[in-house]
Amino acid sequence: MQRHDFFFLPPTTPESGTAREPSPSPTRRSSRTGVYEPKPSSVVMREQFHKLLVALTALIVLLLALDAFWNSSPSPLGSGITAAALEEGLRTCAATATRRRDWDRVFLEGGKPPSNNRPNGNPRHAVLSALNGSSTPLLIQHATLWDGLGNRLQNTDIALAHGIIVRIGTGLTPGDVVNAANAHANKIAKSLRGPKAHYISAQDVEVVDVQGRVVSPGLVDMHSHSGVNPSPGFWGDDDGNESAGDPTSPYLRIQDAINPQDKAIELIASGGVTTSLILPGSAALMGGEGFAIKNFKSTSNSTNHLALNSGMSLNGEDGKLWRWMKMACGENPKRFFGSEQGKFPGSRMGNAWAMRAQLEKARSTLRAQILYESLVALMRRDIRLQVHCYQTNDIDMMIRNKHEFDFPIIAFHHATEAYMLADKLATENISVALFSDFSLFKREGYKHSVRAPQVLASAGVKVAFKSDHPVFNAQHLIYEAQRAAHYGFDEDLAFAAVTSVPAERIGAGWRIGSLQEGFDADVVVWDRPPLQQGAHPLRVIIDGYTTLKHPIVTSQPPTPLPRTPAVSPLLDYPQTQLPAYTVSNISGIYTQENQILKGFITVENGIVTCIGLKCSPKGYLFNLNGGVVIPGLIGASIPLGLEEISVEESTSDGEAGTQDALDGFVYAKDGLRVGGGGKLLEYAWKSGVLTGVVAGKGAGFAQGVSVAFRTAAERYSDAVLKSDVAFHITIGNDAKEGYAKSIASQFAHLRKLLSTTPASPDSPFTDVLAGKIPLVVTTHDPNDISKLITLVSTTAPKVRLVLYGATGAYLVADELAKAGVPVILQTPRCQQQSWELRWCKPYGTTRPSVYEILKGAGVKVGFTANSWPDQVRSLLFEAGWGTVGEGIGDGKVDAEDAVGVVTWRLADAFGLEETGLGRVLVGKRASFIGLDGGPVGFGYNIQVVGDGTFVTTQPIQA
Fold first, then answer.
1. Where is the Amidohydrolase-related domain (predicted)?
2. How far apart, in Å, are the Cα atoms of 681 and each of 203, 436, 566?
3. Same-domain check for residues 382 and 473
4. What's the whole-model pTM score?
5. Of 183, 188, 181, which Cα lies nearest the Cα of 121?
6. What is the maximum span of the chain, computed from C-alpha positions, in angstroms?
7. H/E run at residue 480
């Protein structure tokens, strides 16, 4: 049957296929012939009489109903109840209104103790003392105190005892700590619930002179999945989502799934994150209740003793016993239930209806029923709701639900488009928990802006940063604040976004997230200012217990150099083709390894014609005003030009099969697309990644031949720099597929490929065996790395082996150095996200680092961004972070190393020497960026880009 928007066409006859005209007279279908025949007159008269009788009856009923309506009078008691019952009902309504006002007041105040005085001190400390013994009283002297509220105090002392901050001042002595600690012990001993008084003496106090280093409150992560997505990742431990349930399951509790033995908990603490809000995943519209923990594992191995609320009284004297809830909007629920399971909901309309239906059931009962108790608690302001929403339409829908069903929303999480509704969110007093930079993983994230925090904060919205661990490693939560500050967010607000703001928004701002007397003793001593490149804790203290302890050495990391003035002049048109141009007044030109020059760079027809102090300016002249120049960065094995949005297949080249790759049918140059305003390529070149080296996408054994190309190119004819760069394969769990279902069979296939002439004359493996192009192998396990070195060296010694990923490479560094095999680390800040990645050596916990081990052994090392393609614009940050010396050693920054790992070392690994890529050399094509200082560290911005004849000034990241 045909349908047109709001009506149906008349049915068609089988014979004509056209609309049937109405019969001129009543007919009936013959059971004998199957055709329509006229009805007898007696049948027609009987049918007309029946119709008249039905119409008359309906008219009488209607008249009676109208008479009853117009002539009725109201009952004296209105509702049909007694006056006493009515009066009791009114009293109940008044009491409910009073309770509602109390709910609102407590909610807005964050649930602090009624007297603003914690009668039992830190109740968690009492619990932990019974398990682990009392914490050691601590006096931190000569600190630069960042209190998390925007205040910075020089030469300040902080005294910790009994799990709280007992004193902050200057010139404090152990005796001052004793007096403050024992006064506190007397106070809590008077409480009916207080622990037995524990008095200290001056000999008990540990004194730590931090020599001016920054001391801050512990960081607070208000969106994490540690404990339910443990490290290393196993299917048997993956409990973040209830995949077999309903799309609305608010009654589930994440605390019932948390594994307190997750190694990530201690690792996260080592990054200074002392409190984490663990939330269910975002597959369901209502995923269940969250659970706030302190990242300090007790000897009990009990989830209860991780709880932020552990030890708190039920009567409220220790503060409100908050609960937390997670809801989700948009793509995730409709994909998980609709697209993947064929269930309802499968659209945003379905999402909204399912959520409203569940809320309506809760509102209509408002009593404790097992299925709706959590939602009733939400409406009674006992739960602080966190909502996963990205797009403006989803955020707007949730705000409509908020008003329709009268429940509060604390924060929208991820919320990439929230900056477009900044004023509305400020009016609603709803915060936003963001990534500083994460966008192109799905459509919902596409309109993300690194300027969003400024827009939101300017409108009065409180901004927090979170990890979504293990999406990003919560150990490095401070990295989110660092990047936001780099892109222009106020430094104090950026630091507050990982301390006081999330603490306040989870309802604990009166005890954590700030350094104040009486607050929990959650304290971090940093090796350098927290927003500086490479910052990492020297000490982490949770509830007074030291969980990370490195020596406080006398020498400190150097202070970053100040920024130089902006380039002048600026181009009138942001992207210009210039036949000749010169960059002058350069304080450092990192041309290649072991060579840093000064002066000028002159470019003619896209080729560098002069470098140094004696160059004569040619063409358009740019004054860098003392800035530095480095080669254009190389983005290795990031799907630049082959993908735009990760989960949107229509924006991708697609995945090719192993056999096609081996037969010579998979060349990345054939799938490459440039220009068209794509964000991923724009992210790359505007952050200095001027060259991409990419292979085809594929989850199997072989990915085909990579291509080197210009990320700023607008046309394919201007893009390709080297068409056939390297052949790429994978060894390990990710390569298990039809062609090679086991790691053993992967090695067997590789052995055969290395020892025999390819069956197909077009196979690119012919060039691999001849040493014309490198063989790049993605693998992580050190056992597999050793096997690869032996196999290649004994079977095909001409093959130029390159390792990619290489998480466990540091364990066989001597073998790699002896064989001359370069390594490309897929960031040194790795995570133990799978069994093969369990070899990850966490950054910042012990010296030496992975990079230092490999470099010390003589291995040539390059870096690339992590597995999320849009992180390409943080490549220079990763290079700086991975090569910077840590404060537990000499703390020095090796700027040349940082430049080299993302330029000339990658060029050498891929055999790009003849192109001049990764270097700034006379006679080679221009590919460089000029910065206003650095080049390592946050806060330095690109002032000029020279890419052949293509030039731009001050490219702005959106």
1. 372-530
2. 61, 19, 25
3. yes
4. 0.86
5. 188
6. 118
7. helix 477-486
